[in-house]
# Entry
Amino acid sequence: METTIITIGGMTCMGCVGSVKRVLDGFAGVTQAEVTLQPAQATVTFDPAKANLQGIKNAISDAGYDVA
Ligand code: 9UX
# Structure
């Protein structure tokens, strides 16, 4: 497993946090996801054989939030 912290822009309330959390929990290969508003970030643990960081970032971006 690999754990990474992704800084997320555009999350303004706990509803946003829930939306991002849902996206991450539903992403194949992600085994654990913690999302916080302050700081606005996600701590994601995933199986590198099943998911990659860019794919995870794209999913967050597709949900309407900003990732570097
Ligand atoms: Mo809160 Mo976020 O009303 O997309 S859910 S701003």
